[in-house]
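Lab notebook, entry 326. We have the chain sequence and a SMILES string for adenosine-5'-diphosphate, and the next step in the workflow is to get a structural model of the bound complex before anyone spends time on docking refinements. Request logged below.

Task: model protein plus adenosine-5'-diphosphate, output C-alpha cells.
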Amino acid sequence: MNAGPSESPSCAIQINGLSKTYKTGFWFTPKVTQALKNVQIDIYENQAFGLMGLNGAGKTTLIKLVLGLLRPTAGSVKVLGGSISQRSVRNEIGYLPELPYFSKQHSGRELLEYFGSLHGLSGAALGRRVDEILELVRMRTAAGQKVSGYSKGMLQRIGIGQALIGRPRLLICDEPMSGLDPVGYKEMRDIFIELKKAGTTIFLNTHILDEVERVCDRIGILHEGVLKEVVPMSKILESTVPVDYWVDVDFQETSKLSGLPFQESVQKNGGVQVSSLVLAETLSLLTSRKVQPKAVRPLSSVVEAYFLRAIGAEAHSNRPMEGVRA
Ligand SMILES: Nc1ncnc2c1ncn2[C@@H]1O[C@H](COP(=O)(O)OP(=O)(O)O)[C@@H](O)[C@H]1O
Ligand SMILES: [Mg+2]
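Result returned:
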C-alpha cells in the first residue's frame, strides 16, 4: 500500500517494501517469525504518525529497522532524505525506546546533562536546556533524586526528555504512554501537541488507542506484520464504523428494557449497551415505553472501533474487548 507520493520532498521517513524475519531456536528446532511483511509507508514532515497494532504486531521491529538498530530481510528505509547510517541524519532524531534503561546511580538531571553533552551542549547553555526539559516533562522537583528511586512513569518522562534534549527534527517513540497514569497520559499528549506546533515530526507506536486520537494526523494499522491501512485521522473520525453506547436509565426502570428486538443490544441492570447501528431505534422504542434515559454515552472510541474492524476483530456488543488494551 502506498500512502502518498514517494518522491515527495516532505517525507520524513520512506519505508519501502520492508520485511523482517527472525530466525531463532536451534538447528533441530528452528523457529522462524515473519515480523514484518512488505511494509510500505510514507511519513510526512511536520505531522504526527501513529502506528497502531496489538502486542506482537511488529511495531517495535519497524521502529528498530527505521533507526538502523536491525537489518531488514528485504526492503529499505530513507530517513530525512538520507540514510540512518549518516551521522548528520542521526543527529536530527530523538528516540524514546520501548524499555528505556538508564544507569541507576545517577539523578535525572545528571542523565539529561549527559545526553545534552552528547548533543554538543556545555556550560550555561547545557544547564538552561536541561532546566527547560525538566520543566517540559514535569520532573523539576524530582530532578535531583537518583533514578533507582523513580517510578515507571518518571523513567518514561526522563526518557522523553533525553529524546528531546537535542531539539530533534524527527521524534520516534515506542509506546510513549506505557507506564504513565491518566495524568501522565494527558501531559505526554500535551507535549506532543506542543512539539507538533513547533514543527517536529513525530512517529509513534502504540497499542493504547486513545492516545493517537488527539495527537496523530495519520495512522497506520499494523496486524501480524502486515500494514492493513494508512488513513488520515480525520477519515476515521468521520467514519460510520459502529461504536457501542451505554443508555443509562433509572434503576427502577430496568424491567422496561427487556425484550429489545436488537441482536446488538445487551441489557444490564440500570441500562442497556447498544450498537450505534440501532441506537436511534432503541431510543425511540424506549420513548414509546415511556422510559426517559438519564444519559447516553459512547463505550468505546471510534478509533478503537475502526482499528478492530481493520484487523478483522470487529467489536459488537456481546464481545469483550480486553485484548485490545493490553
Ligand atoms: N529478537 C527477536 N527474536 C525473535 N523474535 C522476535 C524478536 N523480536 C520480536 N520478535 C517477534 O516478532 C514479532 C513482532 O514483535 P514486535 O516487533 O516486538 O511487536 P510489537 O512491538 O508490535 O509488540 C513477535 O512475534 C515477536 O515475538
Ligand atoms: Mg513493541
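Notes for the group: Residues 118 and 130 are 13 Å apart (CA to CA). Worth checking against the assay data. Residues 182-197 form the longest helix (16 residues).
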